[in-house]
From TrEMBL:
It comes from the Bacteria. It is an enzyme of class 2 (transferase). It comes from Candidatus Sulfuritelmatomonas gaucii. Its EC number is 2.7.8.5. Pfam families: CDP-OH_P_transf. This is CDP-diacylglycerol--glycerol-3-phosphate 3-phosphatidyltransferase. One of its GO terms (molecular function) is CDP-diacylglycerol-glycerol-3-phosphate 3-phosphatidyltransferase activity. Its main location: membrane.
Length: 213
């Protein structure tokens, strides 16, 4: 297994560890914030590996079929696991309907990518998709921290952790929805173009058959 795929596998292994830290079985639960800090650090590290494995695969020329399968799978599992866990961990900030929208968006994009692949074309991630990824990381980490702290007081500066978390979660919903619409529009244009190419090819094929006969 090459280095990029090893990094992807590491991210997958981090997911159950992340869920265990957020669970009631974690030894540090209820103490002075160790649980929230550890879970936040682990999620950030897992998110960093998300970009690192793809970068290394392209730079080293190690793009493989297993990597193309595992990388998006690891991303979807990580996002889905994090938000589902947060529904139980911090339900005041992360509502069920919010998680349904975010996860539903991931399933929609996966379905469109499968159809696009079967039609022989791909749709690259837009700037909105990249923004969505960053906002998701911020919302997950802030929601974890908001479980322990409503605000941080640093000298005369007051950081409203809980309100930042709520704002980040709702912003994630907005960006996820807009990016899904943007992706669907790009998909529709590509699929319509592919259908038009097939129609032209069919017309040319029939024309050649007539001339031959």
């Amino acid at each position: 297994m090459n280095l990029p795929n090893s990094i992807t596998m590491t991210r997958i292994i981090m997911i159950p560890l992340f869920l265990w830290i957020l669970s009631s079985h974690f030894p540090g639960r209820g103490l002075s914030g160790e649980q929230e800090i550890l879970a936040s650090i682990l999620f950030v590290l897992a998110s960093i590996t998300d970009g690192l494995d793809g970068y290394l695969a392209r730079k080293r020329g190690q793009i493989t079929t297993i990597g193309m399968l595992l990388d998006p799978l690891a991303d979807k599992i990580m996002v889905t696991a994090a938000f589902i866990a947060l529904v139980a961990y911090n339900p005041e900030v992360v509502k069920v309907w919010i998680v349904v929208v975010i996860i539903g968006r991931e399933f929609l994009i996966s379905g469109l990518r499968s159809i696009a692949s079967s039609e022989g074309f791909t749709i690259t991630a837009s700037e909105l998709g990249k923004l969505k990824t960053v906002v998701q990381i911020v919302s997950v980490v802030s929601a974890i921290l908001a479980h322990r702290w409503d605000q941080w007081v640093i000298g005369v500066v007051v950081i409203p952790v809980k309100w930042y978390a709520i704002a980040a979660i709702y912003f994630t919903v907005v960006v996820s929805t807009i990016s899904a619409i943007d992706y669907f529009i790009g998909f529709w244009k590509q699929i319509d173009h592919a259908s038009e190419d097939r129609r032209k090819a069919a017309v040319l094929s029939r024309g050649k058959s007539v001339r031959i006969s």
